[in-house]
């Protein structure tokens, strides 16, 4: 029969399905019964009855609001108003201890062929020298397993005691072999016992069928558990969003609830044999799915009294700034909640390059826990349900009859980007327009897909500064808002500017400068709940949250959103991040974790990154980082989304080179997601977040996917990129790239 845990998670299952771009209903309709074929309608009816029964049981474990919404009765972290590290047991991985009593452990994974012992040893040493405290290697067959002992010996002979982790898929016998020589085994619950390497949709019609497969898993998995226990070898039960078993999909769909239950099935077997030297992971390429899955996992462990450590990671994050941003959003959000004991930043780059962003994130998490970040205001969250996801959207501006200019485009419905600029930048005109993301036509700026929606001017130009004033007029003509502090407008009026005022000024209804028709309210986090509630009767065009020094952005903002929602305030909220120091990497890591964490809560309508440090960080970088933050948070798509794996010993082509080639030819397709995979080891579910897939099927051969369905097999690699483009065209997702000469950005 289904476990009580399964029952309690179903309420989250339905609402969390929206995170996956591919509906599991399609897999349901294509499912094949183990018995004789059954009509899809009767199958759906049976499934509906099961879901209703489970939901009825779940109601008993939750509080019901007047509106019929199920709310959790517990928390997923020690305190959502302050960062405290979640208390865990300590597990031993070689000479490294992992758990809440120890620093967050950094790890990576090799890309070399494990059979090439010298190459693998050299890569592990490079990673260790870069700061990796554990390194994972691919072990897909017995040849690789036999190489593991030699790899371990050579490392020890060279003075390297770095724990080595075996990455296992489909191969229980291989896992048994490496458990004799390596320090940790990573198993994937979705495919560990599936030696067939087939990814089939199967409808499990009865609880007996469902349980029978769990019994089979226990029979296959138990020997490894006993061996790891005897050898003091650790284990990671690592669920992947893209590779849930057919059994799990049939009951949960590809949801966070299914991810958690999949891991718990294996954990129960471990616990049955008194083996506890393991960690959990819940990886997904979509940061929102990843965050929700880990929060749900932590919540369910709290209910059961379990205290196993967590390994954090966003899988297939990609490369460059985009990969770092997605990882910062997912990993950073959880670290600021006090969750996470070991982390990996998965990038389509050399493995040792993962350690630098990994270190920055680990330091961020450790610092937040050590300082007990937040706590300035204790409050109870009642509006945010971590088991579901609902974005709090403010109402976009509407035009008023007597207004001089059109304000309807100063914010964007999918998430707004506001750029902080200087008078000097305004005066550069064409160069400024390019940095702002505008196209140019006969010297006039035009909006493009990634043009800033509004600008912030800390200092207003004087009327005599003609070039600056002309730039402002031209931006206003294309619908770009110009925000200026109210005091500055009194000194240097800017026609049709949006005045920035404090909440106290807004409540007092102080007169605006004559040049301003609209105003925005800035908040610093110290405002009282009573004053925040008064925003319901204030006609501000937007709110800017710029937390004062000494306040935690994520926790202060949560209180603000709690009060706004409780009082029905529908003013759009912009996260105004004032950055006083750090380099480009710091900007990505800090903004991804702090602002991205709030966007993962569903709170916020846009971002304003204002850098005042000593580094020379271009306006264009801050703008593209802002758009990357919105896209990584699944809000506004302004460029092609790539879901690319970080490469490993299974990879059947040069992943970095091929990804770069594909990006060069398809990078102009906003709203299109392309998966680039070295192999299909984790199943076609890896393409759950992509529209098209380019996957290594055999050496020199590529398989192409539409969603999770393979549509072309065995394409010679030399022409596979062009075939991918043709496939995109066939599905009417292709647009011709713009002439470079016509675009100034």
Q: What are the salient characteristics of this protein?
A:
8-stranded parallel beta barrel, globular, 8-stranded parallel sheet, 745 residues, alpha/beta, 18% strand, 38% helix, disordered C terminus, 29 strands
Give a structural overview.
With 745 residues, the protein is of the alpha/beta class. It has 23 helices and 29 strands. It has an eight-stranded parallel beta sheet with strand order 12-11-9-8-7-6-14-13. Strand 20 (497-502), helix 17 (503-508) and strand 21 form a beta-alpha-beta unit. It starts with a helix and ends in a 15-residue tail after the last helix.
Radius of gyration: 27 Å
* Regions with little confidence, pLDDT below 50 for 5+ residues: 1-72, 740-745
Number of strands: 29
Mean pLDDT: 86
The fraction of residues assigned to DSSP E strands is 15-25%
Structural class estimated from helices and strands: alpha/beta
| Count of helical regions | 23
State the end-to-end CA separation: 59 Å
CA-based shape:
globular
Structure summary:
Helix 7 packs across helix 9, helix 9 packs across helix 10 and helix 11 packs across helix 20. With 745 residues, the chain is of the alpha/beta class.
Topology diagram in text:
Elements: H1 4-16, H2 24-29, E1 32-33, H3 40-59, E2 63-64, E3 70-71, E4 91-93, E5 96-98, E6 105-109, H4 117-130, E7 134-138, H5 142-157, E8 164-168, H6 172-178, E9 184-187, E10 202-203, H7 207-231, E11 234-240, H8 246-252, H9 256-272, E12 278-283, H10 287-304, E13 311-312, H11 320-335, E14 342-343, H12 355-370, E15 416-421, H13 423-427, H14 430-435, E16 439-441, E17 444-446, E18 454-457, H15 466-477, E19 481-485, H16 486-491, E20 497-502, H17 503-508, E21 516-523, H18 529-533, E22 543-545, H19 553-566, E23 573-579, H20 584-600, E24 606-611, H21 619-632, E25 641-644, H22 655-666, E26 673-677, E27 692-698, E28 701-706, E29 709-716, H23 720-730
Parallel strand pairs: 1-10, 6-7, 6-14, 7-8, 8-9, 9-11, 11-12, 13-14, 15-18, 15-24, 18-19, 19-20, 20-21, 21-22, 22-23, 23-24, 25-26, 26-27
Antiparallel strand pairs: 2-3, 4-5, 16-17, 27-28, 28-29
């Amino acid at each position: 029969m289904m476990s009580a845990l399964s029952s309690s998670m179903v309420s989250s299952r339905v609402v969390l399905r929206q995170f996956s771009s591919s509906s599991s209903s399609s897999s349901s309709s294509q499912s094949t019964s183990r018995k004789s074929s059954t009509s899809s309608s009767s199958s759906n009816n049976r499934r509906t009855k099961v879901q209703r029964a489970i939901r009825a049981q779940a109601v008993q474990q939750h509080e019901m609001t007047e509106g019929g919404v199920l709310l959790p009765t517990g928390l997923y972290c020690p305190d959502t108003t302050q960062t405290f590290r979640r208390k865990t047991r300590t597990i031993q991985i070689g000479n490294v201890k992992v758990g809440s009593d120890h620093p967050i452990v950094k790890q990576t994974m090799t890309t070399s062929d494990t059979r090439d012992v010298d190459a693998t040893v050299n890569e592990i040493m490079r990673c260790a020298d870069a700061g990796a405290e554990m390194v994972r290697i691919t072990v897909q067959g017995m040849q690789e397993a036999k190489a593991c002992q030699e790899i371990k010996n050579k490392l020890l002979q060279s003075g390297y005691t770095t724990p080595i982790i075996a990455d296992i898929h489909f191969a229980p016998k291989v896992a048994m072999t490496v458990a004799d020589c390596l320090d940790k085994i990573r198993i994937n619950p979705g495919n560990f016992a599936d030696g067939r390497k087939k990814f089939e949709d199967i409808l499990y019609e009865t609880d007996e069928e469902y349980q029978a497969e769990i019994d089979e898993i226990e029979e296959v998995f138990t020997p490894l558990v006993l061996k790891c226990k005897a050898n003091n070898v650790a284990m990671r039960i690592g669920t992947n969003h893209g590779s849930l078993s057919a059994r799990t999909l049939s009951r949960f769909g590809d949801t966070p609830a299914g991810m958690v239950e999949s891991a718990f099935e294996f954990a129960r077997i471990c616990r049955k044999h008194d083996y506890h030297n393991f960690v959990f992971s819940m990886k997904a390429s979509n940061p929102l799915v990843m965050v929700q899955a880990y929060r749900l996992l932590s919540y369910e462990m709290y209910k059961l009294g379990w205290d196993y450590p967590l390994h954090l990671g966003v899988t297939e994050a990609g490369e460059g700034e985009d990969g770092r941003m997605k990882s910062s959003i997912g990993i950073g959000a959880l670290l600021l909640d006090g969750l996470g004991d070991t982390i990996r930043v998965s990038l389509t780059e050399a493995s040792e390059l993962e350690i630098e962003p990994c270190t920055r994130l680990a330091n961020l998490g450790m610092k937040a826990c050590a300082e007990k970040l937040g706590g300035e205001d204790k409050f109870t969250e009642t509006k945010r349900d971590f088991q579901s996801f609902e974005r709090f959207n403010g109402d976009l501006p509407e035009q008023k009859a007597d207004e001089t200019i059109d304000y309807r485009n100063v914010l964007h419905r999918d998430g707004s980007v506001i750029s902080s600029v200087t008078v000097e930048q305004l005066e550069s005109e064409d160069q400024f327009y390019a940095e702002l993301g505008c196209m140019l036509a006969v010297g006039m700026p035009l909006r493009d897909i990634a043009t800033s929606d509004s600008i912030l001017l800390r200092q207003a130009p004087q009327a005599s500064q003609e070039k600056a004033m002309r730039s402002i007029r031209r931006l206003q003509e294309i619908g770009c808002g110009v925000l200026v502090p109210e005091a500055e407008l009194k000194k240097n009026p800017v026609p049709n500017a949006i005045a920035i005022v404090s909440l106290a000024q807004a409540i007092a209804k102080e007169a605006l400068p004559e040049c301003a028709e609209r105003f925005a309210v800035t908040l610093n986090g110290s405002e009282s709940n009573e004053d925040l509630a008064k925003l319901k009767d204030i006609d501000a065009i937007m709110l800017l949250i710029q937390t004062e020094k000494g306040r935690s952005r994520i926790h202060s903002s949560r209180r603000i959103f709690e009060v706004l929602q409780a009082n029905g305030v529908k003013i759009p909220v912009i996260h105004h991040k004032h950055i006083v120091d750090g380099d480009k990497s710091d900007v990505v890591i800090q903004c991804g974790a702090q602002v991205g964490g709030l966007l993962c809560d569903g709170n916020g309508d846009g971002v304003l990154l204002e850098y005042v440090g000593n580094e020379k960080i271009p306006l264009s970088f801050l703008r593209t980082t802002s758009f990357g933050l919105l896209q990584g948070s699944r809000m506004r798509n302004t460029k092609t989304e790539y879901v690319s794996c970080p490469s490993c010993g299974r990879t059947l082509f040069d992943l970095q080179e091929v990804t770069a080639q594909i990006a060069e030819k398809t990078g102009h397709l906003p709203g299109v997601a392309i998966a680039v995979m070295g192999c299909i080891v984790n199943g076609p579910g890896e393409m759950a977040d992509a529209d098209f897939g380019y996957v290594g099927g055999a050496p020199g051969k590529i398989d192409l996917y539409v969603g999770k369905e393979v549509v072309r097999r065995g394409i010679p690699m030399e022409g596979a990129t062009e075939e991918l483009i043709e496939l995109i065209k066939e599905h009417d997702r292709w647009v011709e790239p713009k002439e470079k000469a016509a675009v100034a950005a």
